[in-house]
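Re: that backbone. Tokens:
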């Protein structure tokens, strides 16, 4: 069910479809997690649906499809290390989420990587602007044809796109092309 004012410190979350997950339709906020490890999530290590996340000093490893899947959530995540996961399509996937701030992240792939993108983000639908801010993010290697960052319009049928902004500050790709193209009228990209 709903989860309110949750705090976890110095914990290891391991196993299950999601190491830490939310039921669809149940909201959770604020969720404050620090100095924790997420291991062997069969689908996604962190599954956020209708959540407000504040996380710092996290290690995420050995996940299934994505390390983090966010639906209709906001996330402020700092000092996160991603060890290589499963054969998934993305490391972080944001669906119709209001915003995310990713600060000081290391996505550690040394050969291989996700098949679609390290970070996949969909603009929100009619309910306000979407922002995705990446600050001091280091990307590892990627597979041929994959993006480091993939931007998309809203997937909801009949929905319009709210304005969306990707801000990049001091991000380091290793090889390949860095970003999917902005979508005119939907995504604006700012680099500092």
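Recovered sequence:
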């Amino acid at each position: 069910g709903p989860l309110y004012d949750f705090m976890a410190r110095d914990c290891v979350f391991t196993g299950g479809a999601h190491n830490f997950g939310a039921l669809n339709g149940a909201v959770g906020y604020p969720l404050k997690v620090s100095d924790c490890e997420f291991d062997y999530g069969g689908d996604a290590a962190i599954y956020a649906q209708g959540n407000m996340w504040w996380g710092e000093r996290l290690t995420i490893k050995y996940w299934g499809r994505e390390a983090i899947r966010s639906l209709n959530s906001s996330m402020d995540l700092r000092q996160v290390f991603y060890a290589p996961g499963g054969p998934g399509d993305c490391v972080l996937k944001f669906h119709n989420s209001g915003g995310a701030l990713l600060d000081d992240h290391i996505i550690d792939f040394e050969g291989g990587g996700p098949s679609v993108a390290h970070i996949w983000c969909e603009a929100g639908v009619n309910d306000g602007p979407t922002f995705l801010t990446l600050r001091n993010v280091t990307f590892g290697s990627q597979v041929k044809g994959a993006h480091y960052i993939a931007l998309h319009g809203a997937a909801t049928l009949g929905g319009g796109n709210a304005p969306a902004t990707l801000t990049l500050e001091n991000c380091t790709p290793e090889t390949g092309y860095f970003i999917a193209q902005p979508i005119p009228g939907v995504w604006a990209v700012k680099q500092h």
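The mean pLDDT is 85. The chain is about 0% helix and 55% strand.
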